[in-house]
Amino acid sequence: MADVTGPISTLPGASHDYPDGTMCDDHPDRPAVARIQGETDSFGSEMNDMCQECLDAYREEMKNADHSGVCDWCKQHMPRLRPRRDYEEGMAGRVYEVCDDCIKRENDELEKEAGTYWDDGGDYDD
User: CA–CA distance from 83 to each of 11, 27, 75, 98, 114 (Å)?
Assistant: First the structure.
């Protein structure tokens, strides 16, 4: 683990800049080519520095991983979950594992709510 942050608004899997001279967490003799956000909660996150071999392995693992499970919001077992924050809790709040249906439902509700503030349905440029 390269670094531990304080509260952070990005989600697990996000790429971040890494300082010059950073070495791989698993292979200290190899230069890092990526810093990927790992475990994240309301207190902060772990940052993982990876060499090319580790980055390739990470990407392959993510591509082939089982992302199914019980959604934190609807409590249903779903084929795919994604990390998501509850906007009402703030952008550095808890990270939930949420299904696509709940994400769509929340986005639709937010779009509907935003439309009540603009006569033209939410065109932010006017």
Answer: 7, 28, 15, 6, 23
* Residue 103 in tokens: 């994400």
Please give the C-alpha separations between residue 66 and each of 61, 73, 74, 81, 82, in angstroms, as whole numbers.
9, 19, 19, 9, 11
Please report the pLDDT score of residue 117 as a whole number. 75
pLDDT tens digits, one per residue of 97-120: 999 999 999 999 988 888 877 655
Low-confidence ranges of the chain (pLDDT < 70): 1-2, 118-126
C-alpha span between 45 and 3 (Å, rounded):
8
- The region that residue 21 occupies, defined by phi over 0 for left and psi between -120 and 50 for alpha, beta otherwise, is left
> If we measure between CA atoms, which residue out of 68, 30, 70 comes closest to residue 49?
30
